[in-house]
Write a structure and sequence with these properties.
Layout (H helix, E strand, L loop, with lengths): L2 H13 L7 H12 L3 H16 L1 H10 L11 H15 L6 H15 L2 H18 L1
Length: about 130
């Protein structure tokens, strides 16, 4: 199984953060229920846990890189893909930051319209340039 399938699952799980009060207790079961196992299952668990552990810093990074937008006005799916992208750029040492950026933008193209995907690309490029 490819990592992009696991990354897609992580996006879908992260999308649900604000919809469940017991999200931190539920996400591992969501991964198990998906049928993703082995290396990709571990990637999914590690990534969701990493996002949760660093959520405040990730959201602050997003807010610091917004130009002309308020975080609260962003759609839930854009926030989810930005959280995943920022995590992979800044915290995931298993993949190069540029790969994390490109994969997040690819997800944005899948789940958003072109305007939102361009927005995600621009914001994550700003984050990337500050990290490298």
């Amino acid at each position: 199984m490819k990592r992009d399938v696991a990354r897609d699952l992580v996006y879908k799980i992260i999308f649900q953060i604000n919809f469940h009060d017991d999200f931190a207790e539920r996400y591992e079961q969501m991964i198990l229920d998906s049928g993703i196992k082995g290396t990709q299952g571990e990637y999914a668990k590690k990534t969701v846990k990493g996002i949760l552990d660093n959520l405040e810093e990730i959201d602050d990074t997003i807010k610091d890189n917004l130009k002309g937008w308020k975080f609260e006005r962003l759609s839930t799916h854009v926030i989810a893909v930005l959280r995943l992208g920022v995590f992979e750029i800044m915290y995931n040492e298993d993949i190069p930051p540029l790969v994390g950026l490109n994969e997040a933008v690819s997800l944005a193209h899948t789940y958003s319209d072109e305007k939102e995907a361009t927005f995600v690309n621009g914001l994550l490029n700003s984050v990337y340039k500050k990290v490298i």
